[in-house]
Amino acid sequence: QVQLVESGGGLVQAGGSLRLSCAASGRTFGAYAMGWFRQAPGQERAFVAAVNWSGIRLYYADSVKGRFTISRDNAKNMVYLQMNSLKPEDTAVYYCAADAQSEFYSGNYYSRSIYDYWGQGTQVTVSS
Q: Using CA atoms, how far apart are residues 126 and 106, in angstroms rounded to an integer?
């Protein structure tokens, strides 16, 4: 069982930066692949970024590639999402998620259905 708690959201002007954090409970955190998703009002929850258990393999949605960076610190049970050059269209609730498998063996890191645990989300608002 893993519990996830996101933090770091807030209001920022376009072009600014934020770093989201996800604190995970549980001794087996290092065995989980992790992902970030976001949900804007009236839209479905969408994939943002993912990382395998070791932090070596990184995956990004095209819309954030080059602007966002996902990372993890297994010693601290933390996952981060560094968001730079923010745009108004990045406004959403951001969710951290854990996949009980250590790798995305089927390559479906973008699919909500493979993640077993979810946090409550943190709001990110980017003003123009």
A: 34
**Contact by Cβ (8 Å): 61, 47:** yes
Structure tokens at 75: 């010693």
Reference 115, options 126, 95, 94, 100; nearest CA is: 100
Cβ burial of 36 (10 Å; 0-12, 13-18, 19+) is buried
pLDDT band for position 1 (cuts 50, 70, 90): confident
Type of residue numbered 35: G
Whether the per-residue pLDDT at 96 is higher than 80: the answer is yes
Tokens 């250590």 locate to: 102
| Cα angle value 87/85/29 (rounded, 5°) | 100
Q: Is 18 exposed, middle or buried (0-12, 13-18, 19+ CB in 10 A)?
A: buried
Q: pLDDT, tens digit, for every residue of 20-71?
A: 999 999 878 889 999 999 999 999 999 999 999 999 999 999 999 999 999 9
* Total length of the chain: 128
* Structure tokens, 55: 């932090």
